[in-house]
């Protein structure tokens, strides 16, 4: 942080010592100077991106207006004040009054942070320049009448100027200044953003933090794994949360993943935790993490260059670590991974040597913690000291036991204390269990039942879902009972991992184990006489020995993998009070002939029978879920199931028909996904008034549905991939709540015109409907539709004329259809962000295309786009393989100022409009296979730009790499690939277009001003110049670096590389793509994706440059570093997974790629090299061989204009 004077970072009082602030920051500024620029950007970064509550008064008041009481309150109720002192700040009496009040309220607590924006701090302090002029004006205006006020303003301004703050002149850009301010403010308000409740007492934590601090060694730049080990309830999670809270702001990414063991056991996968970890990087692309394998790949690829703080809480298996944090090289320099576990062996097996064992509290600390809970203060009551010591002695220093015991005795009389202590003494050897059970003993019978139900069946469930189940179980509202359990520390509430607006009901492991022990003691020797079962051996015992009784209320068996069992299901006949059954992954030969009529929830995967028992009567049943069952049908006729709300039979592949739903009026969700033999859908399904979700996806045998639906509450309806379904129902007038409609992959020919009755529809998926011809005009009435996808509807020919009326549409995909004309109203889609009109690169469509185009002539020469001027929100435009001819891209394409990705590959134009240079947000520009393209236009000014022009065989002119915009965003800078573009190789073999591009990139990016800037260029070539001092045959070389201590002071700029490679004739043709990658110790790997094997003609160069910034974070780097080149393949259909075990010491991939790296070279780039490069005296970096020059003379697209002439027009 660049202060104008020195200030201790600890000068502000910690947040917990002051009041609870309504605002974190009060922002004072002169609107005329900075409102629309600097202040707006600063406020947005503070308030929206960093969640720092910032008060900004935007009103423009007349001179002389008094500050309102509301504004005065805002100043008093703000923790900090940021004052933006700009050139005309003092000309506003409003600003001066505001500043005077800020000084009055905040000076004493050092809470004022001045920013000297385009002013000299000395001018502010001494009121010179514009400040002198302002005060002259004020003195003339107010004269002697208000001279004292003017004097107060001068004093306030002087005091503000004497404070340390930020001087904008010390920064190269406003972005850097704002980043510095935000980091500082974040550190000041960070104590308000806690994982731990600030009122929660923390006892005996100082020595623990001190010892952990030695293990963490934050000053070290290596990657460290630290284990926190101890028994349940000892405080491992609390310690990890506190450490995370104190140091997380020092890291680029900080994530606390709770309950790893439980999430893994509950879901059988860690995908949700992997998504939670990766979401800040992948954002909208997080959906690509669809299994653990993908999550593992993304984790090691996305985090290896970031300084990460990761806490994995409650890990119980080594494979959990392997999928979330396998090795140190998954994380960037300075990263810390903290693992809490009960199993020391787990840490040893994972190679973790830094282990902290959490011990219990000593007697003094334990007494303090007990007193905080029993007396709500740090000190004990003298009259109860001896009794207090007795309880403390019993708890054996276990924090959880001390808290539970203390709270159970709060505001109890001495006699009650003696009685409670007596209970403890009757259970020797059961300290933890008995101490926890004290709270349980004080519950009434109903609350005890609720507590045991949660412990056995519902731990971790959504609170609303749990309340619904319990309300039905006990026939009254269970909300009070849940709240009582929370108050008594038997349950806790946590935010949902999936939805911040929802909460989950949790309990500590020891408390759950206490509940299990309570039930075990109901019948220590015979599990069948207990009220609840959830342990594997107990349940097997009951069903093998037919020992169930009417005492059983619930059974849950969740096995991680499918397991065969030989049960006697007649045991159900004795369980007349059974309410809850859940069997997961148990495979038995035959099902029950009887089910208790008291059942409320029945979940049974792999259910063995072809139907439910003939005479079942499940009047109380609310939830029936039987995934992967052997059911052919559920029941015959209409069964009376008045309370059934959830029916789920996913992957029941033998199911042939749905039951009669006439007597299931309250059904909310019906999920029959992937019931591949399902043919008959009972017509009563269309009359379920409360049905909200109907999922028939992948039911490939369904041929018809009821003709009309009147399901008023339906929100989600899917017949996705019902490939034999030719017609979907008409939609009733009352169906106004539907949000998502999935018809993709069906055989429908048209969409019902009644679709416009779905006024709230947001998502309509029609892709892969190969028989679909068009959409009804009525679809244009869907004002709230956000996404529409008709891709791969090969017979689809025409869109409605009034398409532009769908004013909310954001995503429109129509790839590989037969559309010949798009309506002009498309330009009215002002919110459209993604437009994909991709053709087929294998077999291009004949005739007109996509409606943005019109025929230019009767000959099939391609299509011309209409104006794109209305699509001002567009971020992604794909027009690849559209057969667009010269002039087909309109000149106004430059108006798409928000476009980030533009794909024009596989088209027939010769040049492109110069307005492309105005696409200031463009990051990805694809032009592959444009075989007539001769020239790429000048490029936009952007923070990073990646252009691919592979196989543009007529290309002879390269683009101008415009001044790359300075950006704090970490990027790869600039890349340009031109494989098989032999027209770019100059006859003389020097000063060619590639060299000209290198010169321009060097002038813009190699200087130290650009920090992490780098670039990549791929082009034909077959000889590496001697300019690359380090050379080696094959795919690796060793480069001697300057000593690390001299990196920041030396004239060393970075590293330049040149790699020569070609097709490997022995490589397999099985994969879709091949990748060539450079990796080394201490830097991120660079890679380039090539086309299919055999597409690369002759030898090629890969030239890239890495700024020395890439190495600065690696302080352990030696003076010699080895770089390795490797290739590998991947398929679009079957992704090739390369595990960490397939890497050699230097990162070489075992998998053989489709390309052969023949030679590689490198050079340390110094300032002198840069001067020679820019002056043109170094002209032999790239040397094409004569064979290219000979071919090029007669090759396609050769132009009479040299590359020097092309560049000189701009230079």
UniProtKB/TrEMBL annotation:
Coiled coil: none annotated. This is ADP-ribosyl cyclase/cyclic ADP-ribose hydrolase. Residues 1188-1211 are annotated as: Disordered. It catalyses: NAD(+) + H2O = ADP-D-ribose + nicotinamide + H(+). One of its GO terms (molecular function) is ADP binding. Keywords: Hydrolase, Leucine-rich repeat, NAD, Repeat. Residues 21-189 form the TIR domain. It comes from Rosa chinensis (China rose). InterPro entries: Apaf_helical, C-JID, Disease_R_plants, Leu-rich_rpt, Leu-rich_rpt_3, LRR_dom_sf, NB-ARC, P-loop_NTPase. It is an enzyme of class 3 (hydrolase). Its EC number is 3.2.2.6. It comes from the Eukaryota. GO terms for biological process: defense response; signal transduction. SUPFAM superfamilies: L domain-like (SSF52058), P-loop containing nucleoside triphosphate hydrolases (SSF52540), Toll/Interleukin receptor TIR domain (SSF52200).
């Amino acid at each position: 942080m660049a202060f104008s004077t020195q200030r201790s970072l600890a000068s502000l009082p910690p947040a917990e010592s002051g009041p609870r602030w309504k605002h974190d920051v009060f922002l004072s500024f002169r609107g005329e100077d900075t409102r629309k620029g600097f202040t707006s950007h600063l406020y947005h970064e503070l308030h929206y991106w960093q969640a720092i509550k910032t008060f900004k008064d935007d009103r423009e008041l007349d001179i002389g207006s008094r500050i309102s009481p509301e504004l005065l309150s805002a100043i008093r109720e703000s923790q900090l004040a940021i004052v933006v002192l700009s050139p005309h700040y003092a000309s506003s009496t409003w600003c001066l009054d505001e500043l005077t009040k800020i000084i009055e309220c905040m000076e004493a607590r050092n809470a004022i942070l001045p920013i000297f924006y385009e002013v000299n701090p000395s001018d502010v302090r001494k009121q010179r320049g514009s400040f002198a002029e302002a005060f002259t004006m004020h003195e003339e205006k107010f004269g002697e009448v208000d001279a004292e006020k003017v004097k107060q303003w001068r004093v306030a301004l002087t005091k503000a100027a004497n404070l340390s703050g930020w001087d904008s002149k010390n920064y190269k850009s406003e972005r850097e200044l704002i980043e510095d301010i935000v980091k500082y403010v974040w550190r000041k308000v960070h104590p308000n953003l806690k994982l731990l409740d600030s009122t929660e007492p923390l006892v005996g934590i100082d020595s623990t933090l001190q010892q952990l601090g030695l293990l963490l060694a934050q000053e070290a730049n290596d990657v460290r794994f630290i284990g926190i080990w101890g028994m349940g309830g000892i405080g491992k999670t609390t310690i990890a949360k506190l450490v995370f809270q104190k140091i997380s702001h020092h890291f680029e990414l900080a994530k606390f993943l709770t309950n790893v063991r439980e999430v893994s056991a509950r879901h059988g996968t860690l995908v949700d935790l992997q998504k939670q970890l990766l979401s800040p990087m992948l954002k909208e692309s997080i959906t690509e993490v669809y299994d653990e394998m993908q999550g593992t790949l993304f984790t090691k690829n996305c985090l290896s260059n970031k300084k990460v703080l990761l806490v994995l809480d409650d890990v119980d298996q080594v494979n959990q670590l392997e999928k979330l944090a396998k090795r140190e090289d998954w994380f960037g320099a300075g990263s810390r991974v903290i693992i809490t576990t009960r199993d020391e062996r787990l840490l040893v097996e994972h190679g973790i040597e830094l282990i902290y064992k959490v011990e219990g509290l000593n007697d003094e600390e334990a007494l303090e913690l007990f007193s905080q809970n029993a007396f709500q203060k740090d000190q004990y009551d003298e009259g109860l000291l001896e009794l207090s010591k007795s309880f403390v002695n019993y708890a054996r220093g276990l924090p959880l036991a001390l808290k539970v015991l203390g709270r159970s005795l709060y505001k109890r009389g001495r006699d009650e204390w003696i009685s409670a202590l007596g209970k403890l003494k009757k259970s020797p050897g059961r300290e933890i269990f008995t101490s926890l059970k004290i709270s349980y003993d004080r519950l009434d019978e109903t609350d005890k039942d609720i507590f045991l139900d949660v412990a056995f069946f519902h731990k971790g469930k959504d609170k609303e879902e749990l309340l619904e189940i319990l309300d039905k179980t006990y026939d009254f509202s269970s909300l009070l009972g849940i709240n009582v359990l929370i108050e008594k520390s038997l349950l806790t509430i946590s935010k949902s991992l999936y939805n911040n607006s929802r909460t989950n009901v949790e309990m500590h492991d020891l408390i759950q184990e206490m509940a299990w022990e309570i039930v075990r003691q109901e019948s220590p020797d015979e599990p069948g006489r207990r009220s609840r079962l959830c342990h594997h051996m107990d349940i097997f015992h009951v069903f093998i020995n037919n020992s169930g009784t009417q005492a059983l209320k619930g059974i849950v068996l969740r096995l991680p993998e499918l397991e065969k069992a030989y049960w006697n299901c007649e045991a159900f006949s004795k369980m007349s009070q059974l309410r809850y059954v859940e069997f997961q992954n148990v495979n038995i030969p035959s099902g029950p002939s009887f089910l208790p009529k008291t059942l409320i929830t029945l979940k049974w995967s792999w259910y063995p029978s072809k139907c439910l028992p003939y005479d079942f009567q499940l009047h109380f049943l609310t939830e029936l879920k039987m995934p992967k069952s052997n059911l052919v049908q559920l029941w015959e006729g209409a069964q009376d199931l008045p309370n059934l709300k959830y029916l789920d039979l996913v992957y029941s592949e033998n199911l042939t028909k749905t039951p009669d739903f006439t007597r299931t009026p309250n059904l909310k969700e019906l999920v029959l996904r992937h019931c591949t033999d399902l043919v008959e859908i009972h017509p009563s399904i269309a009359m379920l008034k409360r049905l909200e979700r109907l999922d028939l996806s992948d039911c490939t045998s369904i041929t018809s549905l009821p003709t009309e639906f009147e399901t008023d509450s339906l929100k989600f309806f899917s017949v996705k991939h019902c490939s034999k379904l030719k017609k979907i129902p008409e939609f009733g007038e009352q169906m106004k709540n539907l949000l998502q409609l999935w018809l993709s992959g069906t055989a429908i020919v048209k969409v019902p015109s009644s679709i416009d009755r779905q006024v709230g529809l947001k998502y309509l998926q029609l892709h892969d409907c190969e028989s679909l011809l068009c959409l009804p005009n009525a679809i244009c009435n869907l004002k709230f539709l956000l996404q529409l996808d008709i891709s791969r509807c090969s017979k689809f020919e025409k869109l409605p004329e009034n398409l532009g009326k769908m004013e909310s549409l954001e995503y429109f995909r129509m790839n590989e259809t037969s559309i010949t004309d798009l309506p002009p109203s498309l330009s009215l889609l002002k919110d459209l962000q993604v437009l994909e009109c991709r053709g087929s690169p294998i077999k291009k469509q004949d005739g007109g295309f996509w409606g943005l185009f019109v025929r230019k002539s009767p000959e099939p020469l391609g299509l011309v786009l209409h104006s794109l001027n209305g699509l001002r929100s567009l971020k992604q435009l794909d027009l690849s393989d559209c057969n667009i001819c010269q002039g087909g891209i309109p000149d106004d394409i430059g108006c798409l100022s928000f476009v980030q990705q533009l794909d024009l590959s596989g088209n027939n134009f010769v040049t492109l409009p110069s307005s492309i240079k105005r696409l200031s947000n463009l990051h990805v520009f694809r032009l592959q296979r444009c075989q007539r393209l001769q020239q790429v236009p000048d490029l936009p000014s952007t923070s990073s730009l990646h252009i691919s022009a592979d196989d543009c065989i007529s290309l002879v002119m390269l683009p101008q790499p415009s001044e790359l915009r300075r950006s704090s965003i970490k990027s790869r800078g600039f890349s340009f690939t031109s494989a098989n573009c032999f027209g770019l190789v100059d006859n003389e073999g020097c000063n060619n277009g590639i060299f000209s591009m290198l010169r321009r990139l060097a002038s813009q990016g190699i200087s130290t001003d650009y920090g992490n800037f780098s670039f990549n260029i791929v082009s034909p070539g077959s000889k590496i110049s001697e300019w690359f001092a380090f050379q080696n045959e094959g795919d690796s070389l060793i480069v001697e670096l300057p000593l690390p201590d001299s990196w920041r002071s030396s004239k060393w700029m970075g590293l330049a590389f040149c790699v020569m490679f070609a097709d490997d004739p022995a490589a397999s043709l099985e994969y879709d793509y091949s990748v060539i990658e450079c990796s080394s110790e201490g830097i991120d790997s660079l890679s380039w994706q090539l086309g299919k094997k055999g597409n690369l003609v002759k030898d090629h160069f890969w030239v890239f440059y890495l700024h020395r910034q890439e190495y600065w974070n690696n302080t352990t780097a030696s003076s010699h570093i080895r770089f390795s080149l490797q290739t590998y393949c991947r398929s679009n259909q079957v992704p090739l997974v390369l595990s960490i075990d397939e890497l050699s010491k230097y990162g070489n991939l075992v998998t053989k790629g489709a390309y052969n790296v023949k030679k590689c070279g490198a050079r340390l780039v110094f300032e002198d090299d840069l001067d020679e490069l820019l002056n043109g005296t170094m002209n032999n970096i790239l040397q094409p061989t004569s064979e290219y020059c000979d071919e090029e003379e007669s090759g396609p697209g050769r132009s009479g204009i040299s590359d020097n002439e092309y560049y000189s027009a701009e230079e």
